[in-house]
Amino acid sequence: MATARPQLAPHTTPSPTAPNGLPPGPSGWPLLQILRYARRPYRTLEEGAREFGPCYTGRAPGQPPIVVFSDPEAIKDIFTADADEMHGGEGQAPILGPILGRKSVLVLDGARHLRERRLLMPPFHGERMQVYGRMIREITDRVIARWPLGRPFPVHREMQAITLDVILRAVFGLEDGALLARVRDTLLSLLKLFGGPAAAFLAIPALQFELRGLTPWGRFVRCRRELDRVLLAEIARRRAEGSAGRTDVLSLLIEARDEQGEPMCDQELLDEMFTILGAGHETTAGALSWAFYHVLGRRDVLERLEAERRQVAGDGPLEPEQVAKLEYLDAVIKESARLTPVITQVLRRVKIPMRVGDRDLPAGVNVSAAIYLTHHRADLWPEPERFVPDRFVGTRPSPYTFFPFGGGERRCLGAAFAAYEMKVVLAQVLARASLRVAPRYRMRPVLRALTVAPAEGMPVVMERR
Ligand code: HEM
Q1: 25 pocket-lining for ligand 1 (C-beta < 6 Å)
Q2: In terms of C-beta density within 10 A (0-12 exposed, 13-18 middle, 19 or more buried), how is residue 90 classed?
Q3: Ligand 1 atom at minimum distance from 120 CA
Q4: What angle (nearest 5°) sits at the alpha carbon of residue 61, between those of residues 374 and 353?
Q5: Distances (CA, A) of 126 to 129, 314, 321
Q6: CA of 8 to the centre of ligand 1 (A)
Q7: Assessment of whether the complete model's pTM goes beyond 0.90
Q8: What share of the chain is helix, strand, coil (3-state, %, to 5)?
Q9: Which of 181, 209, 291, 318 has a 20 to 30 A CA-CA distance from 419?
Q10: Residue nearest to atom 31 of ligand 1 (CA)
């Protein structure tokens, strides 16, 4: 089911320059620009590019101007820039720092960012993902088992349930029992805050006061403290008992050592676990919802997926080591991420005057590598609004034309994890349940906790199990 929209024309001539030396862009108050984006994320980016070309300047409250790029040459400049010349953490720190914690990899820059990434990377290495394959399959089965027959239910809510359970078990290493239930309840309260109308208040530093738990920020702080308390006790227990034989991410991080042989301190572990939850939960659930949106109306795609699964797994369940053989499923997931990326752009702060694409930029501005806009350029992706998984069969796209996970030294740490999880979940759901999009559903892309997802959780109906 493709979203029918006018195509973005390729622009080959350099964009003009506004009096402040930056490319021109939409006028209007920064607050209005960000509200417009919050209401119609994809459409707002499209309008900017259509009116001003592949490079324009946007505004957001409390931020320097954001120069938006969707030209592969410029994207390459952004992703290959020296980490000291462009900072990825600085722009996010005022908003995300108080939420994720000051030691979160997402808000750090320079040597501290590099140290954190080196510590976090090994547990997320592509080949390790198979360890979690059966667990993800079982979690998916449990969620499918509760779906009603013949009555609509929001697929996004169900995908959130799966991705949350995967994080609790594979990342936090919790097993069924009181501890898992307690952490899940606390996380659900937190996620409700971020998914609801109070989310905007959480992101505004001036509104981050506690008032004895009465404000949204106060409720957030209470939940976060509760989560930290439970996790600290668990970290202490694992440090004392040792993590031998454990395969979850938290246990591996407790054992990890940096180049000086130093382990991660408790606060680092807490902030990174919270970062992984924040970065990995809603994104993967949203990306799965989009994949269902694209495939459910397409009999040809469903038939090819089913044929491929049978060829690889026969009549039995899909085994973890077989996932890598599902080339068409991989292409389906990539095409879904191209057409409807859950993160629309990644930002960097320019630290020294420098040239990006055909532009000379002063220090202090932000640059955006616009994922959505680059993925929709007709010169890079013919008929960009059509869902055509074959674009990705037998080819390796350039990291500067296709980058749903960002790029360079800040590329998503969980990319292999997310891709593996999505493949197992999609393959399992499509093998076990016959779904269709609920009648009369009109899809609209909406912003949910900084990610873009189909509106109303995209209701689906299960016709057969
Ligand atoms: C479909 C799902 C996901 C998408 C689309 C996604 C996308 C992204 C993007 C665009 C970035 C910014 C990259 C940049 O600045 O260049 C990012 C960063 C990050 N993601 Fe993901 N992500 C997903 C799932 C996950 C998962 C499952 C995890 C962890 C289990 C995760 C952990 C992280 C972390 C830790 C960072 C920060 C990296 C850094 O600043 O060095 N993500 N992700």
Answers
A1: no
A2: middle
A3: 35
A4: 60
A5: 6, 25, 12
A6: 27
A7: yes
A8: 55, 10, 35
A9: 181
A10: 414
Site of tokens 């053989």: 325
pLDDT of residue 62: 81
Residues 71/80/286/337 CA torsion (nearest 10 deg):
50
Decide whether any atom of ligand 1 lies within 6 Å of the 106 Cβ: yes
Query: Higher model confidence: residue 50 or residue 12?
Result: 50
Q: How far from 198 is each of 28, 217, 224, CA to CA, in Å? A: 25, 9, 16
* Atom of ligand 1 minimally distant from the CA of 281: 27
- The pLDDT tens digits of the residues spanning 325-341 come to 999 999 999 999 999 99
The model's pLDDT over 423-448, given as tens digits with 9 standing for 90+, comes to 999 999 999 999 999 999 999 999 88
Give distance in angstroms: CA of 264 to centre of ligand 1. 20
Q: Decide if 292 contacts 155 (C-beta within 8 A).
A: yes
* Any atom of ligand 1 within 6 Å of the Cβ of 276: yes
Helix (H, G, I), strand (E, B) or coil at 354: strand
What pLDDT sits at residue 174? Answer: 93
Amino acid at 249: V
User: Of 22-36, 183-197, 268-282, 326-340, which gets the smallest average pLDDT?
Assistant: 183-197
DSSP 8-state code for residue 6: P
Protein residue with least CA distance to atom 19, ligand 1:
412
Instruction: Indicate if ligand 1 lies below 6 Å from the C-beta of 425.
Output: no
Express each pLDDT in 395-411 by its tens digit. 999 999 999 999 999 99
Whose alpha carbon is nearest atom 41 of ligand 1?
410
Ligand 1 centroid to 56 CA: how many Å?
A: 25
The model's pLDDT over 65-100, given as tens digits with 9 standing for 90+, comes to 999 999 999 999 999 999 999 999 998 888 888 889
Nearest-angstrom CA–CA distance, 9 and 208: 42
